[in-house]
Amino acid sequence: MERYSVITEKNRREIVLLRAFPCAWGKCTFCDYIEDNGRDEEEMVRQNREVLSRVTGEYGVLEAINSGSCFELPRATLEDIREIVDEKKIDRLIFESHWIYRKRLDEMREFFGIPVTYKIGVETFDYDFREKVLNKHADFRRPEEVAALFDSICLMVGIEGQTKDMIRNDISAMKKYFKHGTVNVFNNNSTPIRRDEELVRWFMEEYRWLLDDPDVEVLYEITDFGVG
Ligand code: SF4
């Protein structure tokens, strides 16, 4: 598994995939990457330290992801990141957080003392699809509620049961309310959720222009950021 990468195209940055305690929610129906979660704190901290030692600070921006939210990273790893931020003159961090931690976002900003851009896995703004099919446990109703707290969203497209209208609505909300977005094209994994090939083909054609949008990253493969 690759845990360090440098993104040299849109939004230049270094990215690390760290290990953390189990995702506090852990029940999204499409997710099997929580298998990377662990409970052996010492081992996770050691592994994370190794990955973090590769950070050079070349773009001044570091994105740290884990299979869950940044609030599930071991404390010692957060301290290691803080040391690297200082040493390598990193001036912005990018973290992921689930909706359940929305009231804690400033904790990380205070801890690191630099701007933190938060990404949230919205998956879709269609409430029923998000909550009943994907079981995301993120009970917002309108994009404005999310935009009041998060700078960047992740959408998921190409799942059976999703419609073109849902996707149109999601992309237009992303462009209207958020500075930055990531669109993940769903790939079949070990969960029962299935990819809708026809919908993916339609999306890739209809939204080809997103590939040239500097504020949107489209991940056709889950490993497109070079980690995973
Ligand atoms: S919140 Fe994220 S990591 Fe946790 S189960 Fe859902 S998709 Fe997986």
UniProtKB/TrEMBL annotation:
Sequence ranges assigned to domain Elp3/MiaA/NifB-like radical SAM core in this UniProt record: 13-213
Lineage: superkingdom: Bacteria
Record's protein name: Radical SAM protein
Protein source organism: Ruminococcus turbiniformis
